[in-house]
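Posting this for the archive.
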Amino acid sequence: MRRLLAVLSTTVLLAGCTASPEPPRTPPTGPAPVVSGPATTLRVLAGSELADMQPILDEAAKATGVTVQLDLIGSLEGAERVATGGADGKYDALWFSSNRYLETLPEAKQRLGNATRIMGSPVVLGVRPATAQRLGWTAGTATWKDIAAAAGRGELTFAMTDPATSNTGFSALVAVASALDGSGRALDAAAIDRVAAPLTGFFSGQRITAGSSGWLTDAFLGRMAGTDPGPAVDGLITYEASLLELNSSGKLSEQLTVIRPGDGVVSADYPLTLLTSAPTGARDAHERLTAYLRGRVAQEQIVARTWRRPGTTGVALPSDLPAAPVELSFPDTRAAIEALLTAYQDRLRRPSRTVYVLDVSGSMAKDGRLKQLKAALEGLTGVNTSLTGEHCRFRSREEVILLPFSSRPAAPQRYTVDAAAPQPSRDLLRAAAGRLRAGGDTAVYDSLLAAYREIDGAADRNRFASIVLMTDGESNRGRVLADFEKQVRQRPATAEPVPVFPVLFGEAAEGQMRRVATVSGGELWDARRGGDLTKTFCQIRGYQ
């Protein structure tokens, strides 16, 4: 929301040159089918993008007596909760963009009951009109092979979520790899090596990464409007529904050309899935709810309100929605999925450079704070073997810089994770974290600017660069917030941005840290009031 407000203020200034948005679709009216029964609450663990279904679920409650209680969560975190049994007894059903990954986990698959497809949306590419014109894609006709080749030639830059944390990113990764492989079969572990070279070319064009589709879209808009630091990028890889909604929203100065790759896509199919642990009453509620949601009126409302495709046949598509693209096969083994994710993280993507600006002032000595900080850092060094932990470890080729600070910034400690033997490098980082000691005052802004100097002074600029700031108090030494804002704004407009991700802890100054995130194009994270610092550090990895 912070980013969108900034973008909207700029859009007002551009109103004179803004293309007319597509007219909003009008939800159908008329009597909805009644699938009545006893009043029941269905507890549903759901993907975060399904918040837009609430108005339709409210109508469903009137018709069916089933009130849906959505608990929104990220894809990978949700999968881990199901696989470990954390959803048993607490939820009656799941509603994620897809069950495909869950079905490759034996411990999760056995917990999945009846699954009913409700709607769908393919993961596609939206590009700026000038880019489409330059590449000859004005009719929306291109393939993933074309897209990968253009990115490899340096003619296309794009934003895409991290495949390890977001379904849109992983669906895009599967689609591009499958199209490049061209076998027509589901990817196996060996296929990754066959397509590694063109995949590396494809990812050389990625300029924005994120752990969620919502944040990614905000960052893309911010770059286009000039309210976020860094040059604009050419395209956005996300759900077709998200692109169509964006084109209709009036938030863009120019509508994006939607490219539905001719060599196939991977789509979200949104199955509303009963858990095997659900009680009998929940099973009846699931049946009533899915019958309503798959009915004509609800399906037409889904298309009109959310821009997703209908999940049942016989529902007419709007005139602006062409026939569904060819669907590519999804990897059907966990080995293939893990091989693809590992290759992406350690070999295919642009490597990252992250400076961890770590508050070790005297206040960190109380309440076990320093111990929690050490544990959070150690969790990124390969010791966290959970489903989520495996994908938030420090990656091969990644440069990690530890910059502890108290009354002044300490000397930076630089580590590059060795591609051939990554674990010894991670072990060195874990040992460095263990040597942190608390004492002194709090020079936040001197330390942040020292981190920027580290990044701007690096010889190798072909990296995702970011700063993680962890502080438990207000800055009381050295430069102030205004000095930081001035320095960041004076960076060249063509410079790659360096987003700061402040992590609130203890008595950190929330207002100031929110401003740091806004000015730098980053995001604020809150690990106070019982928050889990280890979990927070892991979640930030999707943005690095």
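The chain is about 40% helix and 15% strand. The longest strand covers residues 119-127.
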